[in-house]
Automatic annotation (TrEMBL):
The chain crosses the membrane at residues 33-53, 85-110, 165-185, 205-226, 233-251, 263-286, 322-345, 390-411, 432-450, 462-486. Belongs to the alanine or glycine:cation symporter (AGCS) (TC 2.A.25) family. It is found in: Cell inner membrane; Cell membrane. Signal peptide: none annotated. This is Alanine:cation symporter family protein. The keyword Cytoplasm does not apply. It comes from the Bacteria.
């Protein structure tokens, strides 16, 4: 009589972790509704609505000015470490990753086509939150004794709210470290290892090792090195992916009306089963759209202002527009392109042995859905690999690689902030800590490359929430400052600063 294998640690953890993630984002436990609304989705959308109203729809009315500033942002117009455009590219390199390819497919699998509508709504309100984050990142930022600039939520909490809120800043930093190691590292490493395995047949552990070495080569140079790579890679890879997606959609233009009907219909009505999709209630569409929207664009999470804080500008409003443009590009443009390809492209797909029209209805999962849709649009092969698969896989590899670079810096800033609260902390100690973190980060890439993806995705939802809550609280408390910055008052708000013998020099 055969004996069953004991459950692995990942298998034992999956159930409890899934319940916590489902409660945070969907209000359910063991698949049953505990509360009638998704808690964090309501908090996130509520905060976004507050800022959209307080900013008088600034992100919508000033979108044109933000696009115009995109080209002006290549020139430095103030103190900082990298150009405003490089800061946006760095932030985008952290935003654009697996969420834009695998995450969109996961959102559709969980919440149906209607989830895409709620992803758009999250992005729209997220643009208001992103403006707030980018503007505050410039208004309140630190300088070291060497004159280096840095900042983020931990800085605008300390300098804008005062020392009594130190606990909130530390809580945010702990959340950043957890989220960095899970969503910024393990999920990305897992995706890049899968991509290398699919394309070249490289074992996952070896793929993880190769990527870890490449990442270390870049991050050893700090934020300037990361910004330099991001400024060159991100615009090219994003433009190429968007062009290929548009061509794929145009080749299947006859299905566009049905696609939009599914998106808008599913946003407000229960969605029926279709092929491999088992159907979803409206609450699942909201949960999936908001959770995956946040995972993709990070608006309100507090990560991107860490990158925007080092921009060479003294105008909070200008960098706020750069930040909101990042959310627009990430979700409204890139995620939408992915969603339309998945939902529109017709191909030779099957579910349980029966033919289905689209990749999202087939027996596919995660990135394979996106890759399959692109392969159906561009089936001719290059070296036995369909062009569409090659495009999607290379895009994923580049997106993920730059995400790994940027999130390493986010984690570095978080761990440095905690260290700086220790009496006697100094610049030399910071540099030692930076190096130790960079080594740990690359070890994490190697380990994460072969982990089970289901558990990591669920842990990522929880980790994101640990960052969102303290950052949103800080944003709401500083909302009056944000509204004044949007009106052009560059010095709005109180300054809680004092000379200290430790780093940084402000508090």
């Amino acid at each position: 009589m055969a004996t069953s294998q004991p459950a692995t640690l990942d298998e034992r953890l999956l159930g409890p972790v899934t319940n916590v993630a489902d409660f945070i984002w969907g209000g359910t436990w063991d698949g049953a509704a505990v509360i009638p609304f998704p808690p964090l989705a309501i908090i996130l959308l509520g905060a976004g609505l507050w800022f959209m109203i307080g900013l008088r729809a600034y992100p919508i009315t000033n979108l044109g000015a933000a696009v115009k500033g995109l080209f002006a942002g290549r020139k430095s117009k103030g103190a900082g470490e990298i150009s405003p455009f490089a800061a946006l590219s760095t932030a985008l390199s952290g935003q654009v990753g697996t969420g834009n390819l695998a995450g969109v497919a996961t959102a559709i699998a969980l919440g149906g086509p209607g989830a895409i509508f709620w992803m758009w709504i999250t992005a729209l309100f997220g643009m208001a939150l992103a403006f707030a984050e980018g503007a505050l990142a410039i208004r309140y930022r630190e300088t070291t004794s060497e004159g280096t600039y840095r900042g983020g939520p931990m800085s605008y909490i300390m300098m804008g709210l005062g020392p009594k809120w130190t606990w909130l800043a530390i809580f945010f930093c702990i959340g950043t470290l957890i989220s960095g190691l899970v969503t910024g590292n393990a999920i990305q490493a897992n995706a890049v290892a899968d991509g290398l395995n699919e394309l070249f047949g490289i074992e996952e552990w070896l793929g993880g090792l190769i990527v870890a070495i490449l990442v270390f080569i870049v991050i050893i140079g700090g934020i300037k090195s990361i910004g330099n790579v991001a400024e060159k890679v991100v615009p090219f890879m994003a433009a190429t992916y968007i062009v290929m997606a548009i061509i794929a959609i145009l080749l299947n233009i006859q299905d566009i009306p049905e696609t939009f009907s599914r998106i808008f219909g599913g946003a407000f009505n229960a969605q029926s089963a279709s092929g491999g999709f088992v159907g979803a209630a409206v609450i699942l569409a909201i949960r999936a759209g908001v959770a995956r929207g946040l995972f993709s664009n990070e608006a309100g999470q507090g990560s991107t202002p860490i990158a925007h804080a080092v921009a060479q500008t003294d105008d909070p409003q200008f960098q706020g527009r750069m930040a909101m443009l990042g959310t627009f590009i990430d979700t409204i443009v890139i995620c939408t392109m992915t969603a339309l390809v998945i939902l529109t492209v017709e191909g030779d797909f099957t579910h349980a042995g029966s033919a289905v029209k689209h990749a999202w209805q087939a027996d596919l999962d995660g990135f394979a859905v996106t890759s399959g849709a692109f392969a159906a649009a561009f089936p001719f092969e290059i070296g036995a690999i369909p062009l569409g698969t090659l495009v999607a896989s290379v895009a994923l590899l580049l997106f993920v690689f730059t995400t790994l670079l940027t999130w390493s810096y986010y984690g570095e800033r978080a761990i440095t902030f905690i260290y700086d609260r220790i009496p006697g902390s100094n610049l030399k100690g910071e540099k030692v800590l930076h190096m130790a973190w960079r080594v740990l980060w690359c070890v994490g890439i190697f380990v994460g490359a072969s982990r089970e993806s289901d558990l990591i995705w669920r842990m990522g939802d929880i980790a994101n929430a640990v960052m969102v809550v303290p950052n949103l609280l800080a944003l709401v408390l500083l909302s009056g400052v944000v509204f004044a910055l949007a009106r052009g008052d560059k010095t709005a708000g109180k300054n809680y600063t004092a000379d200290t013998p430790e780093e940084p020099e402000e508090y």
